[in-house]
Amino acid sequence: MMATSHSRPCLQYLLHLAQDNLDFRLPEIKSLLALRGKPFHPGENFKEKSPFWCLDGLSEEDARGIMARSVCAKSAFELWGHGQTHCELRTSLLNYPSENMSPFMHKDSTYRINVYTFNKTLEFADRIKKIDALDYLPFEGTVSLKSPQHIFCLLEDYGTDPNNIPEHPNYIYFGRWIADGQRELIRSHSVKNRHFIGNTSMDAGLSFIMANHAKVKENDLVFDPFVGTGSLLVACSHFGAYVCGTDIDYNTIHGKGRSSRKNQKWRGPDENIRANLRQYGIEKMYLDVMVSDASKTVWREAALFDAIITDPPYGIRESTRRTGSHKDITKPPDGIYVESHVPVSLAYHLSDIFTDLLNFSAHHLVMGGRLVYWLPVYRPEYCEEMVPLNPCLQLVSNCEQTLSSHTSRRLITMEKIKEPEEELDSLANLADPRFRPYQGHNAFREKYFSGFNKRCGKGDNKSDFNSE
Fold first, then answer.
1. Among 111, 179, 101, which Cα is nearest to 148's?
2. How high does pLDDT run on average in the chain?
3. Residues linked to residue 410 through DSSP beta bridges, in sequence order
């Protein structure tokens, strides 16, 4: 039966999407389709914020491939019929080619029909009535509730407003279940259960979304220049990539110092990034991490990485630092005494971090490789011109995660489209204002705490910043 279904022509498929991280869903699905060499062809009346998307031009293998990776999608169905009313649904189902139905409805098959309602809860008796109303479908097999060969689903969409639920659904779909997405990864890889964590360990769901936006695939080489406790390495290695990273913090890289866990003062002897990958059975994908300054690259001049995925420090929970030297110290005038101490680290401004990150990616990504990183913004001042650009990198997507009424961070995905030509690119940077570093990012910390203090003054002491 499997071989038969894979050889069938491209049909229309229905994706049921989770109603969280709405801004991240479309880039994720587009990226996963791109991995399979397929364009994104939505059906008519497509609405990005809807929990249901109809996609054209896919095969069952494509649908399964998307579900094997997606953490934004819950399930995929081969769409047999749809309409605004049950009458329209009936007409649509009766017009569906019988040769597409028959392999799943013959007398030797077993099946089950589920009823799913979005934004409305139905009584069990009402669900049974809806199933009985589908008696016009030519099912010849036997019903099996426990282990059916085929599962069908009636899906009703009652809108997205929980305070205004209509009596009748806005839209109805019926189709054959193909596969579920990877929502379980959010629970199984929860940071709460992680062997090694820090103050800014990335949320598991967002880590997998970042890996999908970057089109990370088996045998890729992925690098994180601000690796921290390695949450992004865990997500990328889950999809079969070899992973490595750097960080300026010696204690984090070596798993030493104070613990971030409640009721634990110091980190244990085996709390490190390698142990995190070992925890999930993917230690073989771990290359290594090392102490290094992102502002002073240690890599040879070559296109090494299939993807660069990172969450730079914003200066809120972790400081933005770079290494210092004697060259960074201005000699005092004669006769004035100052301490001769050489600073271990200097301020590393956000605008410089992003300039260095994009420049590093332009030099060290393979052609077509992707850079995915977080950009913190002060919402009242945000405009698209603030997103750092580079002549060698094309902006693919820009998604917002709101942190508070006044701050958010944007997940930026860029793809390498050409090799750097130092002189030409330097001239382009000077001539084109789009490529000049936006200095306003440097004040993000002050603006963040300014807005935070205003809220605290109103009696709201809840932190609006979850992770970096």
1. 111
2. 87
3. 375, 400
